[in-house]
Amino acid sequence: MSHNTFGHLFRVTTFGESHGVALGCVVDGCPPGLALEADEIQAELDRRKPGQSRFTTQRREPDQVKILSGVFSDDRTGGRQFTTGTPIALMIENTDQRSKDYSEIRDSYRPGHADYTYDAKYGIRDYRGGGRSSARETAARVAAGAVARKVIPGITIRAALVQMGPHAIDRSRWDWAETGNNPFFCPDAEAAAQYETYLDGIRKDGSSVGAVIEVVAENVPPGLGAPVYGKLDADLAAAMMSINAVKGVEIGDGFAAAALRGEDNADEMRAGNDGRPRFLANHAGGILGGISNGEPVVVRFAVKPTSSILTPRRSVTRDGAEVDLITKGRHDPCVGIRAVPVAEAMMACVLADHYLRHRGQVGAACPAGAVPDRAAIG
């Protein structure tokens, strides 16, 4: 099975299965000399781990990370751990697998899952929780994202759940601080209260619901990304689309831009106090021509309802027999909730990769965010 690596200079390879011994990642290309401790990675993993509320799967995984390589400390570093520039291997052990929950569907294809497509492609599949196709793999991405944040100091990355099912937040009540006060990472306190009642009903029905996640990166310098096939927005779209259950991605106004007139959509500019252009709006989501323009980078994606539900669904077996399936086990009634820290991690990894790519292409001649000396260029 190939294609388990993403990134160019900041490269992340993930490994492991939902019910295997462990999962993790290898981060290659991280510059040396960056302070990195396991507890910093753990803080991000703790936001994603399951079983933290009645609104997520009750699988109990501590998701304790171990740094196996790529860091060094001794008396000269004061006991602090720093990256060495070599591959950083991170491992997270699985401790609460219940593979027997899946024994009844070993030969059946769960509707909405990757069971059939994996079998059609490889001729073999790990039916225990979906194996490699399970969203459990995203724990490794979150760990890698914690490393990526070290590469891009000064950039703030935050994500929030802005819609659950048909119920969107009121953006006039947006409060980033509120995302840490409710189990949904929701920036609207009133909407979060409504989601509790709504999702309780969905959960008691044995069903599931989708969501929309918005991730914003602030203080991104202009200049990241490259035409034509190295566009920042193209890589962000691919990264977000690679997250389990994501079915749509948009940058800035996204699909809403189709309803605007040209004079409304174009982000007008005026001269800023520092001599650089100041944008009067951000319909483009911080990216023009595939290159960051210094405005916040804004990405949204839609997450489908969790396919594992207790309502019988029609399907077939590997031998072609027709069956009605009920998916047992422990599942998220809204997988979009735990996608929030995953979205932040993917944003961090892409920005770290593009930061290093920009530095590699133009070096000290034009650091990200700098305005070239036109006289020198001629």
What percent of the residues sit in helical stretches (DSSP H or I)? Answer: 10-25%
List low-confidence stretches.
373-378
Overall pLDDT, averaged? 90
Overall shape: it is: globular
Distance between the termini: 50 Å
Report the total helices.
Answer: 8
Most strands sheet? 5 strands, antiparallel
How would you describe the overall organization of this protein?
The chain is α+β, with helices and mostly antiparallel strands. It has helices spanning 38-48, 115-122, 138-151, 189-204, 232-241, 262-265, 339-362, 374-377; strands spanning 5-6, 11-16, 22-28, 65-67, 71-72, 82-83, 88-93, 156-164, 167-168, 211-218, 246-251, 269-271, 277-279, 287-288, 291-292, 297-303, 313-316, 322-325. It has eight helices and 18 strands. A hairpin with a 2-residue loop joins strand 14 and strand 15 (291-292). The chain is globular.
Can you give keywords for this protein?
378 residues; alpha+beta; five-stranded antiparallel beta sheet; globular
Short description:
Helix content is 24%, strand content 21%.
Topology:
Blueprint lengths: L4 E2 L4 E6 L5 E7 L9 H11 L16 E3 L3 E2 L9 E2 L4 E6 L21 H8 L15 H14 L4 E9 L2 E2 L20 H16 L6 E8 L13 H10 L4 E6 L10 H4 L3 E3 L5 E3 L7 E2 L2 E2 L4 E7 L9 E4 L5 E4 L13 H24 L11 H4 L1
Antiparallel strand pairs: 1-2, 2-3, 3-7, 4-7, 5-6, 8-9, 8-10, 10-16, 11-16, 12-13, 14-15, 17-18
Helix pairs in contact: 1-3, 1-7, 3-7, 5-7
